[in-house]
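Handout, page 2. Input:
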Amino acid sequence: MSTQHPDNANQPKFVKNPETLRGKDEVYEAFHAYSRLGCDEQMWDIEGKEASRSVVRELLEENPDFFKENKLGKDFRLTARIPNPEYERVEQKVVLEILENIPRSYDAANVFYGDGTAPIYEVILPMTTSSESLERIYHYYKDYVSGKESHTPFDKTIGEWMGEIKPERVNVIPLIEKMEYMLKASDIVRDFLKKKDFKSQRVFLARSDPALNYGLIAAVLINKIALTRLQKLDEEISTNIYPIIGAGSAPFRGNLTPDHINETLEEYPSVQTFTIQSAFKYDYPKERSSKSIEKLKKTLKKPMIPVNEKRSLSLIEKTRNDYRKKISKLENIVNKIAQYSPSRRSRKLHIGLFGYSREVESGNGNIKLPRAITFTASLYSIGIPPEIIGFSALTDKDIEFLSENAYKKLLSDLQDAMQYYNENSLKKYPFLKEDVKKAKEYIDIKTNEEHKKITDQILKQKTDNIKDKIIKAAKIRKFLG
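Output:
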């Protein structure tokens, strides 16, 4: 999530509202990502947002010279993220609308290019829990969208009446977010690929929500086990498996910034695609961001060193239990600060009447927390980097194991995060003392004094100008959450 500095040379000029990307801003943002930053794919996120259904036509009509030279659907991808109809009940039929809209996008591109290139040929299904949920999307499109071309409603087939319906099929990318399903990612994908002649299959592993739900260390280890198992699957079948990881700019959410490209590539060598979020796009000079993106694009997928699954699973259990006990004691302050945390995208709430709640298991039952970005921003805003929560559960041997194999950049991520730690937060939340004490055994905490002054003010919980203070602190960090 970007802080969108008003004095930053990479600030998006197309944003009409200085605080929130909404409506057509996101069409302009897609073109900005393609043309200025060199991203070769844009996720068109329709989950919980009123994103344009005419994005392909708008991109081509408004930027014809660029897209004549750079073909949408070949040189650049546009991949729709749809709601999950099993969980987002009010949004269920939006899925049907999006799938029906794919042939419309094809028609717009075919008029523009004239060669039958499909601009959208994949969709992302969030909260995937089974191969069956992927099959439903895949077969609905194949059987009831493109498949209806040969149906005859009266005297003509739909194809004769409305023209051909292309593409004939779309692939479905599972976005897997919960631990139990991430650990089964290879099984879900294996089942989905049965009796299909795909040359490749992409698999999207969440990074932010696992951190929110289980803590930093558990989130990394869950991803590492999932990647290890997907690599084994890749070696066993003829379809190439290409993992995607949803990294953010805060260390808690991945620490993917222009400053940390090499470390990220070393940590996740088997990942084919990394998500670039708005802090990366807008809080660094364009030249640095585009150069880093170019390096991500040019770096070939490599085999990863498989993690010790037994040891990793034990550490997941230990650290997530400690994290959950402590996070339950921070629920009230997180939700209080979250009310003032700015949103950078016009998004329907995932809580309340028209959505689902984000619940996290804790030592005292389930607790409700905001989305991962807002959660992270809230804790940073009071001088508690969420990366530290649960660190004291680790022994020296655990840290040695992580640093040498399973999570090599653990201590550097912690070092990056702890510059924004405010020791005064311990006066209100003393249960974090052991975490900080353990961290000090391994890193030298160099406090950012400017950030500390702001978080001191927020810690007092006075509501006057609190939103401005949250933004000011975020600008120092170069990310909101």
